[in-house]
Amino acid sequence: MTVVSTKKAPQRSKRLRKKLFQDEFATFGFELECEFKSDLSEETISEFVDSFFIDAINAEGLVFGGGLSSKRLSGFIGSAKRYGSATEADKAKLHAWLVAQPQVAKVELSEIIDANYYA
Asked: Which domain, by its residues, includes 43?
C-alpha cells in the first residue's frame, strides 16, 4: 500500500529558496570512497593527495570536503561555483583519474545527490 501525502510543499519566495538552496538553487555533488594499497609510505600518500587536489579537484572546478587516513580518502565532491553542481561528466573524469593512479586499490563514487539535503 502506497501512502501519498496530500499536503503541499510550502510556497517560498525566491529569496528564501535561494537562501535554503532549494528548487532552482539546489546544488548537487557525490560522495567518494577511495582505498589505498596497503604498502604505501606517508610520502607517497602525501604526493597522491597533492596531485589529487591539483590535477583532479581544482583543475576541474570542484571542491572536496572529507578526511584522509593511511588507508583511505573519503568525502564529498561538489562544484566550486556558488550555485553550481558536480555533474556526471565530473564524476566520470574523477573516477577515470583515480583508477589510473597506482596508489589506489578501490574507488567508489555515489550517485549525484543534493549537497544540502541528503540523508
From this structure: 28-114
Alpha-carbon distance of 87 to 16, in angstroms, equals 25
Query: Whole-structure pTM over 0.90, yes or no?
Result: no
How many separate domains does the chain show? Answer: 1
Q: What is the pLDDT of residues 23-51, one digit of tens each?
A: 888 889 999 999 999 889 999 999 999 99
Q: Report whether 65 contacts 75 (CB < 8 A).
A: yes
Query: Does residue 10 form part of some domain?
Result: no
- Mind giving me the DSSP string for 28-79? EEEEEEEEEPTT--HHHHHHHHHHIIIIIIGGGTEEEEEEE-SSEEEEEEEE
Report the CATH number that the domain containing residue 70 is assigned in CATH: 3.30.70.100
Within a domain: 4: no
